[in-house]
Design brief:
By secondary structure, the chain is mainly alpha-helical. The protein has helices at residues 2-8, 27-53, 68-99, 105-118, 126-129, 135-152. It has a domain at 41-152. It contains six helices and no strands. The protein is elongated and about 65 Å long. Mean pLDDT is 82; it is low at 14-18. This is Nuclear pore complex protein.
């Protein structure tokens, strides 16, 4: 929510010749806005990565004596992960790519997210392929577009993003 607020109230790029932008913001105000946006994106990224890397809702249930209730609960947790994990990844990826026009390192962070999705320790990718729709293919198209954008901007797709 905070990200959408910052992004929808973004100032125009600072004019090279003047101290004020087209919308009346000074360079200092724009710099403060960029800093605040960067902090909001970083906070959202950190929180989302905690969910992805800590196996959110993968709770080992005692199946020895649980019966129907344990099976039902296990299915509920599975369904929740399957619904929300791809959505979290898509939103985080889109936020990082969108904000990279202001904070260029976010493009590298978006590509780093693909490494986390593919990581065998967390198996996040399984949440994309278990559903009826092949969401993994959709995600890989987004990763491809981000990679091409990074290459067009003169970046290195193999460079590790420095975690701040």
């Amino acid at each position: 929510v905070a990200y959408k607020h910052f992004w929808t109230t973004r100032p125009a790029d600072a004019a090279a010749s003047g101290a004020r932008t087209a919308d009346g913001m000074s360079k200092l105000e724009r710099l403060n806005w960029v800093k605040a946006l960067s902090q909001v994106v970083e906070q959202a990224r950190d929180l989302d990565l905690v969910l992805l890397e800590r196996d959110w809702l993968k709770i080992p249930l005692d199946t020895s004596g649980g019966g129907l209730e344990t099976e039902r609960r296990s299915r509920e947790l599975f369904d929740i992960r399957q619904a929300y994990i791809p959505e979290i990844v898509f939103r985080l990826h889109d936020m990082l790519v969108e904000s990279s026009s202001v904070v260029p390192i976010n493009l590298n962070m978006a590509l780093r997210l693909a490494e986390i999705v593919a990581d065998e320790r967390h198996k996040v990718y399984l949440e994309f392929i278990r559903s009826n729709a092949n969401l993994l293919q959709d995600y890989m198209l987004r990763v491809r577009e981000a990679s091409l954008l990074l290459l067009n901007n003169g970046g290195d797709v193999f460079q590790k993003a420095v975690e701040s």
